[in-house]
Design a protein that fits this description.
The complex is a heterodimer of chains A (448) and B (565).
Chain A: H1 6-12, H2 15-18, H3 27-31, H4 36-39, E1 50-55, H5 62-65, E2 71-72, E3 90-94, H6 110-117, H7 132-140, E4 149-152, E5 163-165, E6 168-169, H8 176-184, H9 200-220, H10 225-248, H11 273-292, E7 298-302, H12 319-325, H13 336-357, E8 360-361, E9 364-365, E10 370-375, E11 391-394, E12 405-408, H14 415-424
Parallel strand pairs in A: 1-7, 1-10, 3-12, 4-7
Antiparallel strand pairs in A: 2-12, 3-11, 5-6, 8-9, 10-11
Helix pairs in contact in A: 7-14, 8-11, 9-10, 11-13
Chain B: H1 9-15, H2 17-32, H3 40-43, E1 51-53, H4 56-67, H5 87-90, H6 98-116, H7 121-124, H8 137-152, H9 158-175, H10 178-190, H11 193-196, E2 197-199, E3 202-204, E4 212-214, H12 216-227, H13 234-241, H14 248-260, H15 263-275, H16 298-316, E5 329-332, H17 337-340, E6 350-353, H18 367-372, H19 381-393, H20 407-410, H21 420-427, H22 431-444, E7 459-460, E8 463-464, E9 469-471, E10 474-476, H23 479-487, H24 490-505, H25 514-526, H26 531-539, H27 552-556
Antiparallel strand pairs in B: 1-2, 3-4, 5-6, 7-8, 9-10
Helix pairs in contact in B: 1-13, 6-10, 8-9, 8-10, 9-10, 12-13, 15-16, 19-22, 24-25, 24-26, 25-26
Classes of the chains: A alpha/beta (448), B mainly alpha (565).
Organism (chain A): Sphingobium vermicomposti
Keywords (chain A): Membrane, Transmembrane, Transmembrane helix
Pfam families (chain A): HXXSHH (PF07586)
Chain lengths: 448, 565
């Protein structure tokens, strides 16, 4: 594990993540001094750029979602209507797809894996590498209490699409109350509090944990390859705990946008779409503060599961079942129930963007210093179509990214999205994906 | 029974010079990792994984056994992973994520603080700094030797004891409190690899020259986590300390002891909980408008009902596994009786026999199976049929094709298709769909007289539900017939035997273990498909403690050890 130092990070700003990338063309990007975020100050340093993903299940109805005009001020088809108030902050990427290259299309799995890893596979357990959010957390996640924060509104810690490897899923925090306790519980230190005294208990915990782990590593000796990989993961994770304790011993830098929230109501997890939107909004607001208070720089939020678990209370047919079973209404020309759920999911996304942009930071908002990629696992869920999987971006990544435009992908590999996100966040990668999904073409259209 | 108070009997046994020497040798061989080179034949066989992460249930039971049931274990555990239908088989595939490590450390801290607090200190720590031990070094050494044996499930090495004492004293100096130092060191120990993971340490096999096996301490853990779903008790640790677990006679003595105690029931219960994937009941929700009688507490009660029924019939009464599918006996309580529409007076659980005219017969008609394999607002013959094939018969049902179209299935208002059967049948006209639905639906439809919450319904949309069906060419007319068909289907008993093996081994089946599975099933059949002989047969098979997959030459013959003794 590399050592890190919070103050060092802040002084170096993006160099902290970019340092590993020397020699690659996109590095210039991060050394550019024109971005508004770079001009802003925070604790004597620069405002960090954060990265996140936002997932919703069961895609959309292409004719009711894909904008028909490209560029800025794109048109909003009916299912995208909820994003109207935040349209200038949201870019739409349509027409990018997963090419399966002879692999089977595992319903609700293949598209998501292809998008997240650049390499289609039949199950998450067989994925070829980490999901791109994990690579990004590796590049920018150090220096905050949580390298990344996984969240799912469905109440299930297993609902996560953030994988270090096929057997290492980063589990989700699955309710507003749990999120509050995790971030703002006993270990939280208000970055704007007046005094700071390092806690001797934390000091001792770190030192003992480190000594015990070092001894364990020394004692283990030779292992078979698979056992060794698992044990290495264990040690890496324990090291993260030590790093976190080390961080708690330093005075946290001031965070002007940080306002410690009050404890939320304990909303039970629900599949009812209205209740889901409520819980999600609450979690989004807590997450915004977790980010503003420098607790994490990377997050993954799941609004609804792959095979969207959403329902309307009292209806025997849930969203996912409806996508396959509902008749296309002859007069309307589409599946009306599916259309309604898809539109409700976009309302969730609009709520999320609103929560991030409601926090003022520097000369702009928290969202300006973020890049969030929203995506689903299919386009038209009725036939599990992995062509034209809907993707949206929000935020300006500290002034590096344009917002509010529509790019029509024309069947390009969706790995272009993952590649671009990683490059923007300082992951040293010039090509990403395998076989037909391999690409070295980043989305230059979105760059400032 | 192992109580929370850790006696020094095992430690005394350990201090016997001979025992110490042999343990020292074992630990050295293990810790240095310089295992003697395996023979060429062995080297060709794949190694089995050496680390199995404790499941949440095992972790909780272990803490209760070491420190007492009043120590609260609170926190979010890293989710376990299901491999081949079993969480147990996933324990040798998972590691620990950063979020998981953080949570385990936090859970450990909560436990350590309670162990050392004023309420428990006298009983669980039992010493403090004194005039003769001003810093508490002797006290810390004594505490960690005793507790360490239970936490690591093997004695601490001298180096580990020294480290624990030094770190306790250093932490105590920093926080200016001896007991604070104990808490911090104990937390680290409870976050350590040998606690969180059952670890197999390899040694030379005393009964097979040139062969390799796992040491006595690893054996003790493997036995107790399989048979009790918890940590070894003192007697088992003693059998490890004195080396008797390395002999077949000593092993059998311990196995028979472990299986004779009431805790064996917990072990069997844990197996069926995993095998039937019943933990899913804890997050199951049903639409309160469609199924108002299905309260949120019904799901955990239905899980309990199934597990109680199984342990009563299979453990207490030593019954035939196959009879689970045909019995009219079921554990009942007041909460569930309305869903079964039968009167039930007693305050607590008891076994009842459903009347002859009741539509429910056997495990498949219990609410746990019916509700778990349904949608939130309706039943699903396909999900039920799939679970029946995959969970109970260990078959694989392919996922639907990507371009699936089942428009007609949902159209409940179409007067031509009023029941699920009619709608699914229309769907089966599509050949691609039919290939898989033929595997699942004919059995699933028989169960469609029970709705998505598991309640009986003779009709759907005013039409009587046709419950005829077929399983592997055996026709039947109702759920009793389906139960009988499962009872008579050899895949059902093969599946439970093979699953018990994977559960016990904590990993996926190795290809060269197939003949062993055949032999396991044959012996299961000879024993009248009783669960005790099956579990016993598994743990006394030499492969249970093997470090590699069986070699091809061995598998032809039957394992010699097992059935005697």
């Amino acid at each position: 594990m590399t050592q890190f130092d919070r103050r060092g990070f802040l002084l170096r700003g993006m160099l902290g993540g970019g340092a590993v990338a020397v020699g690659l063309p996109f590095l210039d990007y991060f050394l550019d001094d024109n971005g508004t975020a770079l001009a802003a100050t925070l604790g004597g340093g620069r405002l960090p750029v954060r990265f996140g993903t936002w997932f919703w299940g069961c895609g959309m109805i292409p004719d009711r979602w894909n904008p028909t005009t490209a560029g800025a001020n794109y048109d909003l088809p009916p299912e995208l209507a909820p994003i109207r108030p935040v349209q200038d902050k949201v870019s739409v990427l349509s027409g990018f797809g997963v090419t399966l290259g002879g692999k089977s299309n595992q319903p609700h799995i293949s598209g998501n894996i292809g998008l997240r890893t650049g390499t289609p596979s039949d199950t998450w357990q067989q994925i070829a590498g980490p999901t791109f959010d994990v690579s990004i957390a590796g590049a920018i996640g150090a220096g905050t209490l949580f390298r990344s924060l996984e969240l799912s509104v469905d109440g299930n810690a297993r609902t996560s699409f953030s994988y270090r490897s096929g057997t290492e899923m980063n589990p989700s925090v699955a309710s507003p109350m749990e999120l509050y306790r995790r971030i703002f519980g006993a270990d939280f230190r208000d970055p704007n509090a007046a005094g700071f005294t390092p806690d001797p208990k934390v000091m001792a915990r770190r030192s003992v944990l480190s000594a015990v782990t070092d001894e364990r590593r020394r004692m283990l000796g030779k292992l078979g390859a698979e056992d060794k990989a698992r044990v290495d993961s264990y040690f890496t994770s324990i090291r993260e705990v030590e790093n976190k304790l080390a961080l708690q011993l330093e005075r946290p830098p001031r965070a002007e946008a940080c306002v410690v929230p009050t404890q939320p109501a304990d909303l039970p997890a629900s599949t009812d779409v209205t209740a889901r939107q409520q819980s999600h909004k609450l979690m989004a607001e807590l997450l915004a503060m977790a980010v503003a208070c420098n607790q994490t720089k990377v997050f993954n939020m799941v609004f609804s599961t792959a095979t969207a678990d959403l329902r309307q209370a009292g209806s025997p047919t849930a969203y996912h079942q409806a996508t396959h079973e509902e008749q296309v209404d002859r007069t309307k020309g589409y599946q009306p129930t599916v259309d309604a759920f898809s539109t409700q999911s976009m309302q969730g996304w609009a709520d999320f963007v609103t929560a991030m942009s409601a926090v003022k930071e520097g000369d702009g908002t928290l969202l300006d210093n973020m890049l969030v990629v929203a995506h689903s696992e299919v386009s038209y869920a009725k036939n599990h179509d992995v062509n034209g999987i809907p993707v949206m971006l929000a935020g300006r990544a500290g002034g590096k990214v344009k917002s509010g435009i529509h790019i029509a992908g024309q069947g390009d590999p969706i790995s272009r999205v993952g590649l671009t996100m990683q490059q923007l966040m300082g992951v040293p990668v010039d090509a990403w994906g395998t076989d037909e999904m391999k690409t070295s073409r980043s989305l230059s259209e979105i760059m400032v | 029974m192992s109580g929370p108070v850790i006696s020094s009997r095992v430690l005394r046994a350990l201090s016997a010079v001979t025992a110490l020497c042999s343990i020292g040798a074992i630990l050295m061989a293990a810790s240095a990792g310089q295992a003697d080179a395996p023979t060429q034949q062995q080297a060709q066989q794949p190694q089995v994984p050496k680390f199995r992460r404790l499941t949440e249930a095992q972790y909780r039971a272990t803490i209760a056994d070491i420190f007492g049931p009043d120590i609260k274990v609170s926190g979010r555990f890293e989710p376990d992973m299901r491999v081949g239908g079993l969480l147990a088989a996933g324990t040798s595939a998972v590691s620990l994520t950063p979020a998981g490590a953080e949570q385990y450390e936090q859970i450990a801290r909560g436990i350590a603080e309670q162990v050392v607090d004023a309420k428990h200190r006298d009983r669980l720590v039992g010493c403090a700094p004194s005039a003769s031990d001003p810093q508490g070094a002797a006290c810390a050494a004594d505490f960690f030797k005793r507790v360490g044996l239970r936490i690591y499930r093997r004695p601490l090495t001298d180096g580990e004891v020294k480290l624990a004492v030094a770190q306790t004293l250093a932490a105590a100096a920093t926080v200016k409190d001896f007991h604070g130092g104990l808490v911090i060191m104990l937390t680290a120990m409870l976050s350590d690899l040998p606690f969180l993971f059952q670890t197999d340490r390899e040694v030379a096999d005393p009964s097979a020259p040139g062969g390799r096996t796992i040491d006595a301490w690893s054996r003790a853990s493997k036995l107790s986590y399989f048979l009790w779903n918890s940590t070894p008790d003192e007697q088992l640790l003693q059998a490890a300390a004195d080396g008797s677990l390395m002999t077949q006679a000593g092993l059998i003595r311990q196995v028979d002891r472990l299986m004779a105690l009431p805790r064996f029931e917990t072990g069997v219960r844990s197996f069926f909980d995993d095998f039937l994937q019943l933990e899913g009941m804890m997050s199951l929700s049903k639409d309160g408008i469609i199924y108002p009688a299905f309260r949120s507490s019904a799901a955990p009660a239905a899980r309990e009902q199934t597990l109680r029924t199984i342990t009563t019939l299979l453990v207490e009464e030593n019954g035939d596994y196959r009879d689970l599918f045909t019995t009219r006996r079921v554990a009942m309580n007041r909460q569930l009786s309305p869903l079964y529409r039968i009167p039930y007076g007693p305050r607590d659980w008891s076994m009842i026999t459903l009347p002859d005219q009741d539509p429910r017969v056997g495990l498949l008609t219990q609410i746990s199976f019916l509700a778990l394999h349904s949608h939130e607002g309706r039943s699903s013959p396909t999900l039920r049929g799939k679970a029946l094939r995959e969970v109970l018969m260990c078959e694989h049902v392919p996922t639907p094709p990507a371009n699936v179209n089942f428009t007609i299935v949902q159209d409940t208002s179409n007067p031509a298709f009023r029941t699920t059967r009619e709608r699914l049948k229309a769907h089966l006209d599509d050949e691609e769909c039919a290939s898989c639905h033929k595997l699942t639906d004919p059995m699933g439809l028989t169960l469609d007289s029970f709705d998505g919450a598991g309640q009986f319904r003779p009709t759907e949309n005013g039409v009587p539900i046709d419950t005829t069906g077929m399983l592997d060419k055996v026709p039947f007319t109702d759920s009793a017939g389906l139960g009988k068909a499962l009872h008579d289907n050899p895949k059902v008993t093969q599946c439970v035997a093979q699953s018990a093996w994977r559960y016990a081994a904590g990993r996926a089946l190795l290809p060269s273990e197939e003949p062993l599975m055949a032999s396991l099933h044959e012996d299961f059949a000879h024993a009248g498909f009783r669960i005790r002989p099956l579990f016993r047969r598994i743990v006394i098979d030499p492969q249970f403690f093997a470090v590699r997959a069986p070699a091809a030459s061995r598998i032809a013959g039957k394992p010699s050890s097992g059935r005697k003794g």
